[in-house]
User: Fold these one by one.
Assistant:
Number 1:
Amino acid sequence: MTVISPALVESAETRLNDILSDIQKLVEVESPSEDLKAVSRGATAVAEIISNRLGAEVETLDRDGVTHLRLRFGAENSKVVMLTHQDTVWPVGTLERIPFSNDGSVLRGPGSFDMQTGVVMAIHAIAMLQQERVNLEGLSLLVTGDEEVGSTTSQELIVAETQEAEAVFVTEGALDTSLKIARKGSSNYVVVVEGKAAHAGLEPENGVNAGLALGLLLPRLVEMGDSDKGTTVTPTVLKAGTTTNTVPAHAEVTVDVRAATQDEQDRVDHAMRALESPLPGATVTIHGDINRPPMERSTNEQLFAQAQSIAETLGIEVPDGVAVGGASDGNFTAAQGIPTLDGMGACGAGAHAEHEHALVDYVAPRTALLAAMVAIHLGATDRADEA
């Protein structure tokens, strides 16, 4: 008997209290990316949930002090990969100000939307397939610990784990109920300007003002963007100067770049590296690189259409597909040409913001959709419309 039927949604509904309890457990651990001990505590909490719900022992993978988790069923060459992360952007202590809450319709708390709900949904989707006696051979679950800071230690792990997969499901949150079928690529740079210090009152003419040189560069940076192509180049954090009476000898700006295509991402990268100071005597050095390549729509459209068909079979709301500016670990997998469906986690809003929240009514149906998509690609049934 196929598992792709409305009964799968009913199964998810019966698990809802357990799902919500596990979400609360993860939110209340607090696991900001920069605090490696906190990330390790978060990984331990996830491992405990996996043990409790799946009866499985997860691998703990340390990469330069960052804790990641991997759960494989069967062979090393994964056919289907569920990709999640449990690190958050919120510092330890945020719970004192924004405690976990559940009023029956909305979950709140640091990381509730991005993305502890998605982690728990992935675990319970697997538990549902176990309950249905689906052969899980070829399934892999990755729970990384540094997605919010660019996946610097987990990128290699992600690429290796997914290189032979036929489908990757990323349980990032979904704005409203839409699945993410395209994401912009992201690049991160620091533009450093070196000038020459001098006394601002006695001999300012003998200095080279790095702050002024950087100021002249800022419009050039913004002009690298292309609104018609959706490319943005945004100066963010600026630093310059040491004391109020000294010509700044050093200035720097962090630059966030987003591009919808690889060609655009490469164009901006070349332009960044060609920057020269407009102020004589000042020098410019560029640090940083392309972080995540774009997730382009063409790679994922067939998987998205399948998700829509399965949603109809399950009798749940059929999701739309959207392209978004934010990047995720799904960018790495889609760039390899692997069909990747993102936004399979919580429905809600407010990632990285004070109003971060997940909607309770969508947790069970979307967990069922996730389980069904995994089942299809593990060969539990060939087509959603066979149910």
Number 2:
Amino acid sequence: MAEAVFHPPRRKRRVFESYESPFPVDVGGKDFRICQAEIINNNVIVRNPEDIEQLYNKGYFGKGILSRSRPVYSISDPSLVTKWQGANVNLPIITSKKYRRHVQWAKSILQEQGFDDCSVTKILENYTKPLELPFLEEDGAEQTGNSCNRKGPNTENTELPKQSSTDTGNAVALSSENQNNGYKKACLGGDPAFDSVACSCKARENTEPRSCEMIKSKECAPEYVLVQEEEEGSLCHEDDSARVQENLVKKEKLVCRRNPFRIFEYLQLSLEEAFFLVYALGCLSICYGEEPVTILKLWEIFSEVKPDFKTTYMAYHYFRSKGWVPKVGLKYGTDLLLYRKGPPFYHASYSVIAELVDDNFEGSLRRPLSWKCLSGLNRTTVNASKELMLCYLIRPSDMTEEEMSTPECMKKIKVQELIVSRWVSSRERSEQDEF
């Protein structure tokens, strides 16, 4: 059988990031760190922001649970950020409709916890009341000592009128130090009802107490947002001789409030990616509950969760070792998609179907393909400017199931790639006529 010929990948037209490293390891060993992950509902989740940045930037492992690929989800509305860019604020800006939706979600959670409607209304009114923002002078010194204090009787300083977006004299910003102080005050207020609202996603303990404390402080601290709200004012016509008529005009303002229902962006790893980081690179520790899971136990657990895990992982390990970035190929009906360097730089070159066979290319195939099914799958792949590849993982005929129960069995596995192409008779005739 002929060896597969790799064609040059198709580069993306617009690339907005630089290539850092193929793996989240450092050759010198100075920046090497073991990232933490946990198994939740048969999925491997990374929650530490530093670990997320490390794993995705160096090798493009995993995807954001709320994003398309890179975990960069933000509650802030980009159109509103552009609209209010002159206000110079570093808080998320959302619409009042979106904010009311978060309040409604928090209300549902409190009701599920047994609070009556009167208590829920009182809790949310106190938690979502407008807050004051610290105003900065031109030299950067703060005019107010505390950040995001509760709103008093005078509410003028809590609202940012739309006309002030072009005024750069008094820039509005929230320093990270004051923001953390505000977080601590709000989170340590001692009100369990507030904690149940703000900490909608409780942090689970892991093996590192510092990382656990960081995650808990981040998830339990309130999130301050700027809500764009509308107020109604009155304007009179310039013609004084005419009858004075008042027209209601909608004015927009930004009000600082606490978000009662926080949404966190985490990194979700496929089972193949997670095991590769643990077994091949040794830069990831996976916990189930409070205990870290060993490599052999992970091999067993992942095989139970995904019956064909051994086959797909062998293919993943092989292509990763060859310098490709494999991603899940479910949307194209295959097991893997192969990228050069990473999805931000190139389109996927190949859609891969992995099969485990013996020396005679026989065995219980995971997905027997009829000619009709193979033709349709190949057409789908070609229409997406990719090539269909069959990856055969050849194991010795005398290999037992006991040997397959450990990842060391990969040392005896051979790999054969086969690229499927569609033969077009008219194109073949024209090429022969040229000769």
